[in-house]
């Protein structure tokens, strides 16, 4: 019998936290294996509000540590991947019935000054009767504040971390569930099951990180047979996608009379992403879906502020995710901390590091802190390195995407503007790896609808672990939103016949 492969670190979960930790560890010289039971980011990390933000509303809950860390991370992440992360201005209409204007202004003053803001412009006050951002807002709202945060393609952030980890030597297994872990003589023996074939294999590892997000307790109990005094609280959040109904590039943030805030963000060019809700959730995380009362709630809040009235029939798509929040005993789901906490179980010299909570925004710091917690087990591993590192495709001079886009237009004069932007935004400086030697649209192979051509699909299968239609049209790209049902069906048929073996 052959000996199982042995790794320094085994990471359970290919969401943003697992992928971030695998990348950080591989860059420090550890041998790393990461397994994901479904697709990368198929859990919560493709279902977020897609903001790299300090979290203005967390100031009300005195989460100063988290907000400061997140504010600083905005520009760190912007510099590392300016193709998938970009600045956005948020217009917050003042509503006399909700928080007083002085309180909002004080929060924004702190937001501007808590740290890390060099590039992003600060807050300004807007007269909604005169400034263009006010044109779509109902007349009774006359004043607003405008502040900065950043937008991120969440699922691609996960994939880029996995690509970087793999390029630094990590092994990434998708559609592979960790089914058991047990300690033996100061090491872990781990059993993995290929979700497609059912085949079970064993590996060994010196340390295990449990980054299973909403499944973290399941892994502690069922998979590792361990205990933890900590746990996660599952809070569901849903979003709707509708046609965009304002002309600027800014987003809006509106307050509801239940004290919650709703984001109305420009999305995929001509659409808007609206969310989110905050509902305690006890079902299986895999089964989460937006329900009708949530969709009605989101539409009602928007209609309270905007002149144009959204209807149920405007909703193109909805999706829902489960926040794996660290359970700090708070009753109100909106008040539960958004900060992250570790639990290091060090029995028998074989560490298990459980990760509770954490946001997309703070994944890099969370990963750094996770590796610091494991430092004593790997005294020779490298130090912190990700603060100034670039994610794959982010090699864009001065993180200036606008100038980069102009260069691309000169390099690919035959490519339609929309398609250059699509490739530039998804692959950044690695665009040439997708396009290859093509010198015309024909050279990109079969066209499936929207911006999706065969060359891109083959790249995603070859380099980014795409194995199904949804991996391609929903998580690696958002072309699902641009394709007709007929085009999707044709693509599915082609993918099945052409790519099933390669994937
Ligand atoms: C509605 C909503 C809006 C949000 N908005 C924002 C936002 O705007 N900005 C922000 O910064 N954060 C936001 N968040 C928070 C953020 O999305 C999450 O905190 C983050 O995605 C959690 O990442 P994770 O890696 O811990 O979990 P996940 O992404 O869920 O990853 C865990 C992975 O582990 C895998 N797994 C589980 N068990 C096993 C096993 N036994 N074997 C192998 N794999 C396993 C799962 O399949 C899953 O893919 C939002 C969250 C929600 C729900």
Q: What's the alpha carbon Rg, rounded to whole Å?
A: 23 Å
Largest sheet: 10 strands, mixed
The unreliable regions are: none
- Helix and strand content put the structural class at alpha+beta
CATH topology of the largest domain: FAD/NAD(P)-binding domain
Q: How many independent structural domains?
A: 3
- Which small-molecule species are bound to the chains here? flavin-adenine dinucleotide
* Total strands: 20
Q: Helicity, in percent?
A: 25-40%
Instruction: Name the CATH class of the largest domain.
Output: Alpha Beta
- Tally of contiguous helical segments: 13
Give the CATH H-level superfamily of the largest domain.
Answer: FAD/NAD(P)-binding domain
**Which CATH architecture of the largest domain would you pick?**
3-Layer(bba) Sandwich
Strand content: 15-25%
Distance between the ends: 29 Å
Shape: globular
Give the averaged pLDDT, no decimals.
Answer: 95
InterPro entries: DAO_C (IPR031656), DAO_C_sf (IPR038299), FAD-dep_OxRdtase (IPR006076), FAD/NAD-bd_sf (IPR036188), G3P_DH_FAD-dep (IPR000447)
Pfam family, one: DAO
EC number: 1.1.5.3
Keywords: FAD, Flavoprotein, Oxidoreductase
Explain what this protein looks like in three dimensions.
The chain is α+β, with helices and mostly antiparallel strands. It folds into three domains: 5-44 and 156-231 and 337-388, 3-Layer(bba) Sandwich (FAD/NAD(P)-binding domain); 85-150 and 233-326, 2-Layer Sandwich (D-Amino Acid Oxidase, Chain A, domain 2); 397-498, Alpha-glycerophosphate oxidase, cap domain (Helicase, Ruva Protein, domain 3, Orthogonal Bundle). Helices cover 30% and strands 25% of the residues. The protein contains 13 helices and 20 strands. The strands form three sheets. Strands 3, 4, 5, 6, 11, 12, 13, 14, 15 and 16 form a ten-stranded mixed sheet that branches. Strands 1, 2, 7, 8, 9, 10, 17 and 18 form an eight-stranded mixed sheet that branches. β17 (341-345) and β18 form a beta hairpin. The radius of gyration is 23 Å and the shape is globular. The two termini are 29 Å apart.
């Amino acid at each position: 019998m052959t000996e199982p492969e042995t790794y320094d670190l085994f990471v359970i979960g290919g969401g943003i936290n697992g992928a971030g930790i695998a990348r950080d560890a591989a860059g420090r010289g550890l041998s790393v294996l990461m397994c994901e039971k479904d697709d990368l980011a198929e859990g919560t990390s493709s279902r977020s509000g897609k903001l790299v933000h300090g979290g203005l509303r967390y100031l009300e809950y005195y989460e100063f540590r988290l907000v400061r860390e997140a504010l600083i991370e905005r520009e760190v992440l912007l510099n590392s991947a300016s193709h998938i992360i970009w600045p956005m201005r948020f217009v917050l209409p003042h509503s006399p019935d909700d928080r007083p204007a002085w309180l909002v202004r004080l929060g924004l003053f702190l937001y501007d000054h808590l740290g890390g803001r060099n590039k992003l412009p600060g807050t300004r006050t807007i007269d909604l009767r005169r400034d263009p951002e006010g044109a779509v807002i109902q007349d009774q709202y006359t004043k607003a504040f405008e502040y900065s945060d950043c937008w991120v393609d969440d699922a691609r952030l996960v994939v880029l971390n996995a690509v970087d980890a793999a390029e630094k030597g990590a092994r990434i297994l998708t559609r592979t569930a960790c089914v058991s872990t047990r300690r033996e003589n100061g090491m872990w023996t781990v059993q993995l099951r290929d979700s497609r074939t059912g085949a079970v294999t064993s590996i060994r590892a010196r340390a295990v990180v449990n980054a299973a997000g909403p499944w973290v307790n399941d892994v502690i109990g069922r998979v590792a047979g361990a205990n933890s005094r900590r746990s996660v609280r599952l809070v569901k959040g849903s979003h709707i996608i509708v046609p965009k109904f304002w002309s600027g590039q800014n987003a809006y943030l509106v307050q509801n009379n239940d004290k919650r805030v709703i984001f109305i963000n420009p999305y995929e060019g001509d659409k808007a992403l609206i969310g989110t809700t905050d509902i305690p959730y006890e079902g299986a995380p895999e089964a989460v879906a937006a329900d009708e009362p949530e969709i009605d709630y989101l539409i009602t809040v928007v209609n309270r502020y905007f002149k144009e009235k959204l209807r149920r029939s405007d909703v193109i798509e909805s999706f829902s995710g489960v926040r794996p929040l660290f359970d700090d005993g708070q009753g109100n789901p909106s008040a539960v901390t958004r900060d992250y906490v570790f639990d290091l179980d060090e029995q028998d010299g074989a560490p298990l590091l459980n990760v509770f909570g954490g946001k997309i925004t703070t994944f890099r710091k969370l990963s750094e802190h996770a590796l610091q917690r494991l430092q004593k087990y790997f005294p020779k591993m490298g130090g912190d390195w990700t603060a100034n590192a670039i994610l794959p495709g982010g090699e864009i001079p001065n993180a200036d995407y606008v100038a980069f886009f102009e260069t691309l237009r000169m390099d690919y004069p035959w490519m339609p503007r929309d398609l250059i932007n699509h490739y530039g935004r998804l692959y950044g400086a690695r665009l040439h790896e997708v396009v290859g030697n093509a010198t015309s649209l024909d050279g990109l192979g079969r066209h499936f609808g929207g911006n999706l051509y065969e060359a891109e699909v083959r790249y995603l299968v070859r380099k980014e672990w795409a194995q199904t239609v949804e991996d391609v049209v929903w998580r690696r790209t958002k072309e699902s939103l641009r394709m007709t049902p007929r085009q999707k069906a044709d693509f599915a048929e082609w993918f099945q016949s052409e790519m099933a073996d390669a994937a």
